[in-house]
Predict the 3D structure of the following.
Amino acid sequence: MLTCSLTLFIPTLTLELGTNSMFKFITQAIKRSLRRSKIARFSTGYLILLLVIIIFAPYLAPSDPLALDLEHTVQPPSMEYPFGTDGMGRCILSRIIYGARLTSLAGFVAILVGMTVGIPLGLIAGYCRGKIDTVIMMGMETLMGFPYLLLVIVLITMLGPSLPNAMVAIGIWIMPYYTRLARASALSIKEQEFIEAARMSGESNFSIILRYIFPNSISPIIVWSTIYYARAILMAAGLGFLGLGAQPPTPEWGAMTAIGREYIFVAPHVLFFPSIIILLTALSFNIWGDLLRDILDPRLRGME
Amino acid sequence: MSEKLLEIRDLSVHFNTFEGVARVLDGVCLTLYEGEVLGLIGESGSGKTVTGLTVLRLLPISAKVVSGSVYFHDDNLLVLPEYKLRDIRGGRISLVFQEPGTSLNPVAKVGDQLMDVLKLHQQIGDNNAVRAKAMELLEAVNMPRPSLVMSQYPHQLSAGMQQRVAIAMAIASNPDLLIADEPTSSLDVTVGKRILELMIYLKEKRTISSLLFITHSFGIISEICDRVAAMYAGNIVEYGDVYTMLHKCCHPYTKGLINSVLDIDKKRSELKPMKGTIPRLINPPSGCGFHPRCPERMDKCPVEKPNLNPIAKNHFVACHAYEK
Amino acid sequence: MFKHILSRVIRAVITLVLLVSFIFIAMHYAPGDPVTTMLGAGAGPEKIRAMKHKYGLDKPLAYQYVDWWQRMIRADFGISWKTGTNVSQRLFRSIKYTLVLASTAMVIATAIGILAGIVSATKRDKLFDATTRSITLVGISLPTFVLGLGLMYIFAYLVDWFPSSGATSLKSLVLPAITLSLWVAGSLTRLVRSAMLDVLNQDYITGARAKGFSERFVIYKVALKNAGVTILTVLGLQFGLLLGGSVITEVVFSWPGLGQLMVEGVKSRDTPVVQGCVLFFAGGFIVVNLLVDFIYSYIDPRIRYQ
């Protein structure tokens, strides 16, 4: 559909420019966009800040995220607890800082799961075509056609509510997108002459896919992974909120909003901080996603 | 001597593109008299389509009229208020596009589209009268089985039939001027010939009074036009009546155009294409736009842009080599 | 056109069949033993065997599968493992609420989305364009639950205009409906905008203007009709997003609909409830998409007159 033309564009661009110059092209275009837009600079800054927080979490957090302080439950922000405390007296700031680690890890694992299954399937489908292709794509389309939450919820039901299970479920949800992407790449790459040459010199299909098709598909995969990563993180937070992902006392942002909900009228700060951080993170990722899409195919501005 | 119907004076149009400003029209001067067929010939990219679109102010947002005027009778169309312009569009000046398939509304029936145009520009009594007039129009363009076509959608018609529909819509309100932008270029040769014959027929019957015929083919020019203007890189480089242009043209570009067409009467063993390609209009060549490709280039040419000068009665050339 | 419709119906039926089977298999292999859930961990093996027999859980898989289908046709979803009540009853009770919420939100979202999309496509004002883009960007970045909670805080607490939970009156529909619709509206606006922009670049738009039609006519009677086909397709997809969002919205606002029921079911490992909810949701989704397909094939003359 609409996204398919974008995914086809990137592989052809890669082939024309070669993977190295493709990256150069992208980085130059990114620099140009950053110069032009204040918003882009802001979101980049925020994401870098987030990265710092993730790496240096233990040094930045004032307290242990799991430590209870039952004498100071639901306290507003103070010197000791800069973001206040939640219902069990835990420091919200520390929980948010460690939550950054959890959330980012969750997203990462999820897309890893999606990639591991989705990419090989997509490459095979695109390279082999014919019946294999039809079967794989029909399966993927059915998967993608479903309301996303339903799919994930069914998977969680099968696996049980927990953060690791949520990561797997989200990964399965993301998988068809990777399949579609890999397939589009494979389709355009396999038309190249060097593939024909490799085939004639007797290389097995498996080897061809591994040595030629896969490396050339990497750039669109990387680009779209940033977008899928953002979606995975948001989905993880959503599941956490519903109680279907990270379980308390895990300091995951979504789970924290669920706790905050109970105190919404009494102590709104418990809800406010995790919500704001989810919002800012989502916004920054979306701005970046838009940026990337504008660079790669300006015609698709405003899609998806 | 007939009246001036359309006069384009010194028209310059610039397009904003990703890479800069493209000077698509650069001081175009053109006059069309009542009752005549004026041909506008040039390669793709010469600006001939843009000229046609500018007359009716149908340019895209990225285009800007930088200077000049377009006089239709006594009105400058470029400064006319919107509501008056709408009366003229489709009413007194009509446009027929190159691709009939894409210029018709795909989700409306042919009959409805015709009737909409009729209702817009003419006060014809009730629906039945409008419908009857629409059928008349289809018959006037030699449409086979007009009553069936009325209830069909454009995609159900062949390209030739689509173009007939487009022409029918264009002549619906008996316009003073019909601008035809390469109406046969995207059709099969035999189909195109039929359409051309139709237009000649309509002109003879006075259904079409005056015609601005935009094309890239001298073959077509020779069949239908009274006068011809040749365009290159946004400028009119030569114009005159059709006989003069075909046999006694002067400008090196016009000569090149004529020579690059095979003439079945003359014996020649190979095609004689012109050297080079049309210039990019973002940084057009200095002076005369044709000088990089011109076999008759002089020292003056890259420096000074030549104006249109009369060489003979009704024959104008913009070339330093042919200045009197 | 009929061939087209028939193929769509067949596709829908196949998907439905696959779905029902998949649910059966998924639930059968889900960890968590219904019997243990119901009886508690310390129950003796005798009691466990008796329970299993009572619910037919010790019969072979194939038998259970057939039985499953028989029950599906009767819309019998069994007994809730947690509360012991009849699942079908609860399902039918809850679905009313979800339908009300979803349809209200869909109507709001469509109205906003289409209008805003058209306006932002046709108004060439740079400032307006940029503002719309920013608003819609925020709209789709905000996860539904954050938005819902935010709205709840502002309108149910700070100003106390609307109730924050439950489904007691028409007023309590307001916040959840707006929350649910805004996200879809943002996404829809962007899609409508680009569909319109695509159409407005077509030759027949210039052709229509060349015939002297007013800009209004060109946009609403020509461009919109042509974009309508694309927009309809998109609406079907948006409905899927809406369904997903409705689950979250129902939880946020304690709206007693299917979504809330389903989440509770998952948390308490109450499989029959989850089965029923998923089937209802998914089935509804398939039906809606089929309807959209029908409308689409009727409206697009290129399909109608093959």
